[in-house]
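FORM 12-B: Structure-to-Sequence Request
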């Protein structure tokens, strides 16, 4: 039986989790509301909050799981990608604790952990499967052959879809983070009310910079004619923007399924919590005979549950790290 402590600190949430023999026992997250007033994450403030939160959060998950630190078999932590200062807090804590207990360190790639979050709860996908990973910083289609074997089939060449959601929300005057607000407003809107240009990229790659420009110019033109245009049409605007972004995502995912001959489809990352994306994925599954896997909401955003289950799977492969491993803000896939 392996007992793994997972620590996540890549951005603005301090999280810890205990995984016992492949079962995630808990998942504690300390969020940082301080960034809302700045319209985005402030790295220095994020690092300070991680310093303040990491000890009580780790202590809480150990106590809740009735685990003594000496019972741990390994400590998994996010090595990257992420904010350097934030990563340093988590990695330094993990290294110090692992050294004091003389147990293995397990460095985890943040985006691969989002994929492996599908192995926390049942039903679990069989290998190989395709995974659309969508977050504020990444948009990728992956062929997942195993816990240590993932191949990028396509990815964004500029902005991520999460950035497109947040920046579109900012243009609409919505508070940060704007993606969830667009999702909420879209439920009462008409997705076909307005049309926005979809960027075309070769193969299975994405581009989301063009649609942001399209939204900006459209709103600028309409507001010049009617200064209350956004307020009057906020639900339809949100629904139309969300529909366009989801359409761009799904067009390439459908193409990837046909190319690879795989019908096990998964989504992961913060944007996978979007209700419109989940609904569209279910619709395509019914139409195309896909088996769809979607993590529980708590495992979509940044969390240590996905780090802990990744740690468990990597522990089984003996994929250990060293105390000399440095955090990698742009950690290669």
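FORM 12-B RESPONSE
SEQUENCE OUT:
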């Amino acid at each position: 039986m392996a007992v793994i402590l997972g620590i996540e600190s890549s951005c603005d949430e301090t999280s810890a989790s205990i995984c016992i023999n492949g079962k995630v026992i808990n998942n504690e997250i300390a969020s940082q509301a301080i960034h809302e007033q700045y319209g985005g994450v402030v790295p220095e403030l994020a690092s300070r909050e991680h310093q303040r939160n990491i000890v009580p959060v780790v202590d809480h998950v150990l106590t809740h799981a009735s685990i003594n630190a000496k019972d741990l078999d390994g400590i998994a932590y996010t090595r990257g990608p992420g904010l350097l200062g934030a990563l340093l807090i988590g990695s330094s804590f993990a290294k110090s604790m692992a050294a004091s207990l003389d147990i293995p360190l397990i460095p985890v790639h943040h985006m691969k952990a989002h994929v492996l979050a599908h192995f926390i709860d049942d039903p679990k996908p069989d290998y190989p499967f395709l995974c659309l990973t969508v977050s504020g910083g990444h948009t990728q289609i992956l062929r997942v052959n195993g816990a240590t074997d993932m191949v990028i089939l396509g990815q964004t060449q500029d902005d991520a879809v999460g950035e497109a959601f947040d920046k579109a929300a900012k243009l609409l005057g919505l508070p940060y983070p704007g993606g969830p607000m667009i999702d909420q407003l879209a439920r009462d809107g008409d997705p076909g009310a307005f049309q926005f240009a979809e960027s075309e990229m070769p193969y299975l790659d994405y581009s989301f910079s063009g649609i942001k420009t399209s939204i900006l110019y459209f709103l600028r033109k309409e507001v010049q004619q009617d200064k209350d245009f956004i307020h009057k049409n906020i639900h339809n605007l949100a629904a139309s923007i969300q529909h366009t972004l989801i359409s761009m995502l799904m067009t390439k995912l459908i193409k990837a399924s046909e190319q690879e001959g795989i019908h096990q489809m998964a989504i992961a990352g913060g944007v996978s919590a979007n209700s419109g994306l989940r609904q569209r994925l279910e619709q395509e599954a019914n139409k195309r005979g896909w088996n769809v896997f979607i993590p529980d909401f708590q495992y979509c955003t940044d969390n240590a549950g996905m780090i802990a289950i990744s740690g468990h799977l990597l522990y089984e492969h003996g994929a250990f790290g060293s105390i000399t491993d440095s955090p990698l803000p742009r950690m290669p896939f």
